Amino acid sequence: MATNTPETTEEGRRPGLIPRLANGNVELWANLIVLVWVIAFVLWQGVGFAITIGTVFAIWAILAVSLNLVIGFTGLLSVAHIGFFGIGAYSVAILTSKTDYSLLRTEGIPTYELPFFAALPVGIALAGLTALVVGVVFNRFRDDVFVLVSFGFAIISFNLFLNARAITRGAFGIHDVARPVIGTRVLDGELEFLVMALVCLALVSALAWFIVTSSFGRVLTAIREDEQAASVFGYQVTHYKLAIWVISAMMAAVAGGLFSSWTSFIDPNSFILLESILLVSIVILGGLATIWGSLLGAMTFVLLEEGMRFIPFLPDVYVGQARQVVLGVMLVLLMLFRPQGLLGRYRL
Amino acid sequence: MTQVPARDAEHYALGTVGVSKNFGGVQALHRLSISIPKGQITCVIGPNGSGKSTLINILSGVLPMDSGMVIVDGVGLRTVHPYETPDLGITRTFQDVRLFNQISVMDNIMVVLTERKLWPSLFQRSKSEHRQRAEQVLRDVGMWDKRDAMAEDLSYGQRKLLEMARAMALDVNIYLFDEPFAGLFPQMLVRVKDILKQLRAREKSILFISHNMEIVRELSDHLIVMDSGELLVEGDVDEVLAKQEVIEAYLGA
What we know:
The structure holds 2 protein chains of 2 kinds. In chain A, 67% of the residues lie in helices and 1% in strands. By secondary structure, chain A is mainly α. A two-stranded antiparallel ribbon of chain A has the order 1-2. Chain B has 10 helices and 10 strands. In chain B, the strands form 2 sheets. In chain B, strands 6-7-8-3-9-10 form a 6-stranded mixed beta sheet, sandwiched between helices. Chain B has a 4-stranded antiparallel beta sheet with strand order 2-1-4-5, covered by helices on one side. The chains are: A mainly alpha, B alpha/beta. The interface between A and B is medium-sized, with 29 and 34 residues.
């Protein structure tokens, strides 16, 4: 059992400062290792690659932070978030793309040619609205049944992206999703986009931090621990659950908008259930009910994913599968030895 | 059946009129009418399954009643929502100690003190008045030095005390304690007894469930005896305990 106060673990003997702090302190070790890993990666692969990794990290981290509000702080184990991520991504793609698909001899979709910053709020609002509607129904469930219904939502949203061909072009996907424009400056450079993604991540994390450190946040943890007891003390728990669910879905849509603008092409394959499960793994890996943990979890995941490309004996085609295996094994080990995750404040 | 002046708002803090509750085919409460006098300690006794906990669950809105009315301060209510109970001046503890396990002892208390409305609660940080109140409550039950511990890491007795402290953090008029003395070490028993007496001294109305006749005799002013979801007898504690039917049905002596 790790302890947060290592100086009290051993009486009498006083080892050096660093060993004393690090002795059994999983949190410190996790932070140190990831930090060293990041620095090593940047030195080894160069800044260009670091920029790419940084952007992927920012997008996953926004998702992880948003999902942690629901899983870690409120205790609702949701695998639905990939759907909200997809709503954000598709909204931005559909509203900004101006490709004339008749040249490709496939069915066209309506084009709106909105700028990124006009399309993103629409996506966020749409995700929020969807979350509100499904949340009213989902509020009736908790624990394992909640997992199942959120599972249902993830599957339905994927099928919607795949089959609503008149607006999503189904499996063909949408090309030429616009990059953000600030003033007259188009953020088409990788570094510029990274900065913007990190700004979004900072805003989302700040909002999440604001929420969890408020009285509202404390009520969420109480609801997680005992919904009925929380209600006896005067809280309309369904309203609280609905509010955080909607906020979290809107944050996931921000990540979706960034993702589709960054890759400039999206198809339904990015929004399969597996991605949602990877996301849940990131949240658990980093730690439940801690925002810093979600950032760390996302970083670990991205480093793991990208790092595997450089394992010499692993052919490129297996990289995707290998990261899933590694993540799966890590998840099992975590549940066995550290169920609250690396920095967690809560066990499932 | 004993006739109870349940609507007498001047003397009674809380009561029920003809409350029934069924679980599937099992009748937990059958047209139960009881009253809880103001500023006194009322005890509910009865064999297992006689509906004592169901009564507290209905009074606190945790279970909806099938029929009947709950009377709070002379006002009849056909439905009681759990989130309304603090406003009605009611709070409770649970038989199977239900704390907010994976948060700190301090936060367990803080959570019942802070803003109830959703939007304002988002902008509320913990205020010093809340922290002072929480400190006072925790000191009262002697758990201030445990404030940073996780609630789940406490011993059973401490958990029980914390649950009572959490209820007492709410300054309401009516306290419902579901078996506050069950499974407690003798020293702890004294402490919980003191808590009940202190509440009475502050003119609060208390309802508690117990199986310990010694404690019932010592503490309660008013006694309600239930059997199979029905009221057997209710009234002043000495009078009730002297009745032949109570002795036969419950005390078995």
